[in-house]
Amino acid sequence: MFCRLKKIIALLSAVTIVAAMFVCTGIGTAALEGKGTKSNPYLIKTAAQLQAMSENLSAVYKLANTIDLSGMDFKPIGYLAKPFTGTFTCDLNSDGTPKYIIKNLSVTVNGVEGYSDYIEKNSHWEAGLFGAIKGATLTGIAVIDFTIKNTVEGKNQMNPDYSNNPGQDEMAAGGLVAISTKSTITNCIAVGKIVESKNNWCGGLVGELNGGNTVSSCYAQVTIQTSGLWCHGAFAGGSRSGDKITNCMASGDLTAAALSKEYTTGGFVGQNGATIENCYSTASVCAGGSSFAGGTSAAIKNCYATGKVSGASAAPSASEDQNITNCYILNEAGCSQNGFTPASAAEILSKLGSVSGWQASGSLPTIAGMTVITDFSKYVPEAVAEEPTASDSPAGEGTTSEAASSETESAVSVSLDDFKFLDDIKGAKSITVEQAYKILELKSALIEMSTEERAALGDYVKKISDYSDQATLLVVSDFTERVDALPEAKKVKSADVENIKELYSLYESFPNDVKSAFTSETAEKLEACYKQALKLEEGGDATQSSGMTVSEKVIVIVLLSLSVLALAGAVVLMILNIKILKKEKAANEFAEDAEEEVSVE
C-alpha cells in the first residue's frame, strides 16, 4: 500500500513540474522597451528612437524622456503616401503640461525648380515632426524651438487648363504635423518658426487639416516667413470640412508672409472649413490677411482675436456672417475679422469669461485648464544607458543611430541587381504573380529614392513604370483572394494573428495607386481583421505576462486538471488505506484477546 502511495506522489510531482515548465516559458522581450501595443507601448527616449518611428508607422509609442534634436537634420515621420497611423503620447503633469518635450527640431525640405524631382505624388514635400498622419492619435506631444524650412515653391492650385500642379497635395509645413487626416490631436504644443519658405499650407501646429480631424486643448506660438500663395495660420495653415477645433489658442507673427491670396491667411487658421469653438488668437498678420480666419465656410462659435493686420489703420467695423456666433475682434486700429463683433478687452472678458470652456483670469479670457509654458529650461534630457542599435528600432532591424541622422545614407535597401530580373520579362503579359509583387515592391522603393539614385538605374525606372499596371492587376487579384480566405473579423483566432499582420503590412507597403485599386470591401475586411488581431495580441499581453500561446495555455490547463485529479485520487486511496489499517488492527486485537482467554483456561 505504501509503495502505491509513493508512486502516486511521484507522478503528481512530475505533472506539477511539467506544468510549471509551461507556465514559466515566455517570449523574450525586444531590446526596445515595450511591444508597440496600447497596453505596452514602445518607449521613446532618444533622438535615434524618435527617428526610427518612421520604420513602423502603425505602432503605439510613448515619449519617455525629453529629447534634444540639436545638430540633427530630422526626417519627418510618415508622408502622404505612407502616413503615420499609430499612436504617440506623453504623460501630463498635474497642471496639464507634458512631462517631457521634443526640442530643437530642424527640418529642411528643398524643392527643385520646375518640379523635376516630383515623382508619383510621393515627393516627400511635407515638413514637420510628422510629415503626414492618418487615423492617428497624438496626445501631450510638445515640439519646442523648432525650425522648419520648406523651399518647395507654392503655385496656384490650378493651371489655366484647370489641371493641378504636381505635388500640390504634398506641400505643407507644421511644427507638429504637416498634413493630418482623420486624426485626433489633444494637449499638444508647438513653439518655433517656419523660415525662408515658399510653400503653401503653413501652420504653427499643423500645416493642413485635411478633413475628419479632432483637435482640442492645443496651442501654438510661431513665426512664419513664407512667400507661398495659399493657406497660412499661426495655429493651422488651413482646414477642411469635417475638421473640428476646440479649446485652442495661437500667437505669433505672420507679417512676413507675402501672399497674393490674402483671403487664405489668418491669425488662427488660413482658409477654414473646420467648425471652431472656444478658440482665440493674438497673432499679427500680413497685409490683407485677417486676425482670426482668412476665409471660412463653417461654423465659428465663442472665439476672439486681437492680432493686428499690417498696413491696416482703421478700427474694425461690424459685419455679419451666419456661420459666426458670439465671436469678437478687439476694437483697435489694425484688427480685422469679418463676422466678428468689435469689442473692448473688458467687453470680450465679460462676454466669454463665463462661457463654458473659458476662464476670466486676466484682462482677456483664456482657455479653461490650459497652462501656457513660459519657461522650457526645466526640461532636460535624462541620461540613457546607450543609443539603440539595429535591434532597438520599432521595426526590429535595419535602423541605426547613424543611419537615422545621416543626410547622405539612403533609406532604400535595394540595389541595381534587384532590378535585373526585369530583363527576363518579355512584355507585360508574361509577368508572373511572384514577379508582380516584386515589381510593386521596387516601385515603392523608387518612391523613397533620391533623384540621383533613380538616375543611376537607367532604363529600369521606365520598365517599372511600363509593367506596373499589369503587376497591379495581378497583385490585386491574388491579394484579394488571400484576404477573402481570412475569417470574418469576429471569428479571428490567435492562430490567424501572424498571417493577418503579414497581409496588413504588405498592404501598407503598396503605393497609394495600388491601394486605390482594391475594392472597399477588401480594404475594410483587412482593416477589421487587423484590428481584431491587435486586440487578441494585446489581450495576451494583458493577461499572460509569460507570453504563452493558446495551445500552451490549453496544455497547462489540462496538466493542472490532471494534477488535481491525481491529488484527489491519492486522498481517496489514503482514506481507504487508513480504513483498511484500522480493520486489520481491530482484527489483530481481537485475535490477541482470544489467545489470552484460551491461555487463562
Short description:
With 601 residues, this protein is α/β, with parallel strands linked by helices. Helix content is 30%, strand content 21%. The chain has a 20-stranded parallel β-sheet that branches.
Task: Report on this structure.
- With 601 residues, the chain is an alpha/beta fold.
- The chain has three domains: 2-26 and 548-600; 42-112 and 125-373, Pectate Lyase C-like (3 Solenoid); 412-543, no CATH class.
- Helix content is 30%, strand content 21%.
- The chain contains eleven helices and 33 strands.
- The protein has a 20-stranded parallel beta sheet that branches. Strands 8-12-16-20-23-26 form a six-stranded parallel beta sheet, with no helix packed on it.
- A hairpin with a 6-residue loop joins strand 32 and strand 33.
- Helix 1 (2-24) runs antiparallel to helix 11 (550-600) and helix 8 packs across helix 10 (520-543).
- The longest helix is centred in the C-terminal third of the chain and has 51 residues, at 550-600.
- It is globular and about 125 Å long.
- Residues 1-30, 114-120, 387-393, 396-412 and 541-550 have low confidence and may be disordered.
Question: What keywords describe this structure?
Answer:
601 residues; alpha/beta; 20-stranded parallel beta sheet; 30% helix
Roughly how many Å is the radius of gyration?
Answer: 33 Å
Q: Which regions have little confidence, pLDDT < 50, spanning 5+ residues?
A: 1-30, 114-120, 387-393, 396-412, 541-550
Q: Mean pLDDT, rounded to whole units? A: 80
**Molecular shape:** globular
Oligomer: single chain
Distance between the termini: 38 Å
Helix run count: 11
Portion in strands: 15-25%
The percentage helix is 25-40%
CATH topology of the largest domain: Pectate Lyase C-like
Count of strand segments: 33
CATH top level assignment of the largest domain: Mainly Beta
In the CATH hierarchy, the architecture of the largest domain is 3 Solenoid
Query: Major sheet, described briefly?
Result: 20 strands, parallel
Estimated structural class: alpha/beta
How many structural units, i.e. domains? 3
